Amino acid sequence: xxxxxxxxDWSTExxxxxHAAFNDWILICTEEDYQKVSDLYERVAxxxxxxxxxxxxxxxxxxxxxxxxxDSLLQxxxxxxxxxxxxxxxxxxx
Length: 94
What we know:
Elements: H1 12-28, H2 31-45, H3 52-61, H4 63-66, H5 71-79, H6 89-93
């Protein structure tokens, strides 16, 4: 079974952007969307204390996880030029 975490390391700037997007999102998200992210975190890193960056990287690496990422959080990430330019959201949806 392959790891849900991609092998590509993100730059310090990209990682900071993920955290900034999440911090902005947490102020405006619904309880339902917050629960979706909590559920995703359990699927990706059950029992681990981990990074939001790892969760987002896992979502970008696996279309099944990306489909469960709340649109409101994805919009915050896209506003900060995340996902990385090489990411093809249409291919991930397929």
